[in-house]
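WARN  no MSA supplied for this record, continuing single-sequence
INFO  ligand: S-adenosylmethionine
INFO  echoing inputs
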Amino acid sequence: MEAGAPYLAEDGREHKGSWKELFASEAPLYLEIGSGKGRFIAGLAEKHPECSFIACEGGYHIYPRILQKAAAQELSNLRVLPEYIYDPCDFFEDGELDGIYLNFSDPWPKDKHGGRRLTYRAKLEAYRRIIKKGGFIAFKTDNDMLFDFTLGELEAVGMEPERFTRDLHASEWAEENIMTEYEEKFSQTGKSINYLRVIV
Ligand SMILES: C[S@@+](CC[C@H](N)C(=O)[O-])C[C@H]1O[C@@H](n2cnc3c(N)ncnc32)[C@H](O)[C@@H]1O
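INFO  complex generated
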């Protein structure tokens, strides 16, 4: 944990509007919400040193794993926001981000919990505010119910996928894909992975 301390971005609300100052860089800035142990975002940060990345993970026993990766890989372009984000607009100013990644988000299978899903329409509206025009929301999941729900929510807010597949690993985007921990687990069982991307 100590080695990871420089990568920790506590008090996330205080960085609203000034996240780029943490990186001392005007590089494009990307957020992943629900990073888990961080394999995806650490891989992306390593592959793209010209960009900056924020890994948001609320699990207090989980986010230290991302810090460990950041330290081990010396990822100066990655910070970890150790909180559950409910209203993204509390943490980010309008147009502050270039893109958001949502990977294997919790499905919240009961209908009455639909509003908690990270792709619920009010969240999509919030993402659209904090991402600059021309930026994107990228979403992948093994969960067909959540994927179908997300397509409906996108339609409800007037957004249309510019990338769409129900089998990411067999698609034209397979080569650039970086696997998450959950993705590896589910694809090993033979489950195909849903993927979409929306330009805002
Ligand atoms: C199913 S896991 C997927 C982890 C990782 N993305 C992967 O694909 O391996 C979902 C993660 O999202 C985190 N999470 C859920 N809602 C969140 C929120 N609102 N803000 C931050 N993290 C969240 C959970 O703590 C959990 O670690």
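The first strand starts at residue 29 and ends at 33.
INFO  checksum written, moving to next record
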